[in-house]
Design a protein that fits this description.
It comes from Fragilariopsis cylindrus CCMP1102. With about 400 residues, this protein is α+β, with helices and mostly antiparallel strands. It has one domain: Clavaminate synthase-like (Double-stranded beta-helix, 4-Layer Sandwich), CATH 3.60.130. It is built from 13 helices and 18 strands. The radius of gyration is 20 Å and the shape is globular. It binds fe (ii) ion.
């Protein structure tokens, strides 16, 4: 797990780029037809003895092929490569294909922990307290910020089994889903709440409002999302929820223009979470609403999202050194429950060939100290408690 001190420090990496939304004026029937033509599975690339002998050179030699295939299929599973069994080798891999590391979209919350900060490597959800928690399909994305690519790496697989990595093509899910439901969600749009704070309903209104204002002023800005504080939105009296602004459930891929299912409902809908292994405390519970009326998604709609999504999941049993490269605007990811201990990590990447999409912003490294303090204080919480990404 050691970093290579001969390599430059990547701590001052790029900010996570703003989400590229392109969803206006879509004809749903046409969008589904277009998505169906592009639907794809995960491409597998297995290392031969010769590939392994080349080390990072293999990735340098095949950079163009890898980038082209990633755009075409949305995800590539590299299997059996010795190079990525170490932190330094993993970094050599993504540097060889010239990806540019960036912050996690939720980095500013202080809840995302680095595995190796100077290598821009974050830890995935490895905590024993969350091993029994199923993470549904999502993109590493908020309404505001979205990483362009991700490279998930296995350093140690779960010692007692489970923990398969889940990946699904957003184009295949869109093509699969009941047209009436896609149309309904597209017309009404969705809103996602990312946190619940239960204020005893017996508290007088002015205290409830005081808590709301306090969270709004002190907590919400840390999340770098466009959040609205709402009380009782999901029908629970006294429940304060931090709700993202309205978004389209589908989007056109920024580079290819392919229409894809692009939202985190499979992971975030309460009716689905309540029906599967979930170890997240109430404060980290999420919910999905129809944006126009702020009603929660019906069970029927949740079940169709579940059916269409799960039909296209590929569950990967990753071995040490395996890397799953993901186009975050095309493929969604998740993780099955596991037993024992495991160690997986991930780096996020920004746009490398579209500078105007990337922006100029880099991580202000002087904030390091504060982020470390917050990380330390928050360590007792499930690190992904606000939206359990990755
Ligand atoms: Fe994630």
């Amino acid at each position: 797990m050691a970093t290579d001190m001969d390599k430059p420090d990547l701590s001052g990496m790029w900010e996570c780029p703003l989400t590229k939304w392109d969803s206006n004026g879509m004809n749903i029937v046409e969008a589904q037809k277009e998505a169906a033509k592009q639907a794809s599975g995960t491409l597998e690339i297995r290392a031969s003895a010769e590939d392994n002998a080349l080390g990072a050179e293999y990735f340098r030699n095949n950079k163009d092929m890898i980038r082209k295939e990633l755009l075409k299929s949305g995800s590539i599973w590299f299997r059996g490569f010795d190079l990525m069994k170490s932190v330094s080798g993993y970094r050599q891999m993504h540097e060889a294909i010239e990806l540019q590391p960036c912050l996690d979209p939720l980095h500013s919350s202080g809840l995302r922990k680095f595995s190796s900060e100077r290598d821009a490597l974050y830890e995935e959800v490895n905590k024993p307290s969350l091993r029994g928690h199923y993470i549904g399909l999502h993109s590493e994305s908020t309404t505001k910020r979205t990483a362009a690519y991700a490279a998930f790496v296995c350093f140690q697989k779960a010692t007692e089994g489970g923990g398969r990595f889940l990946v699904a093509d957003g184009a295949a899910i869109l093509a699969e889903m009941d047209t009436a439901l896609v149309q309904k969600l597209y017309d009404r749009q969705i809103r996602i709440s990312v946190s619940n704070i239960d204020i005893p309903p017996s508290f007088p209104q002015f205290i409830q409002d005081g808590v709301k204002n306090l969270v709004d002023a002190a907590v919400a800005p840390k999340f770098d999302m466009d959040l609205e504080m709402m009380i009782g939105a999901d029908g629970k009296e006294g429940r304060l929820q931090a709700v993202e602004i309205a978004e389209s459930p589908i989007n056109r891929h920024p580079v290819t223009g392919i229409p894809v299912w692009f939202n985190n409902a499979h992971n975030h809908a309460r009716k689905l979470r309540d029906r599967r292994p979930c170890g997240v405390p109430e404060v980290g519970m999420t919910e999905v609403f129809y944006a126009d009326t702020m009603e929660t998604l019906t069970l029927e709609d949740c079940n169709e999202i579940k059916r269409a999504s799960e039909k296209h999941i590929t569950a990967l049993a990753m071995e040490p050194g395996d890397v799953l490269l993901v186009d975050n605007y095309r493929a969604l990811h998740g993780r099955d429950v596991f037993q024992g201990d495991r160690y997986h990590a991930v780096s996020w990447f920004t746009w490398d060939d579209n500078e105007e999409w990337r922006g100029e912003e880099r991580r202000p490294v002087q904030k390091n100290g504060m982020n470390k303090v917050i990380n330390g204080m928050m360590d007792w919480l499930p690190k992904d408690f606000e939206s359990d990404q990755s």
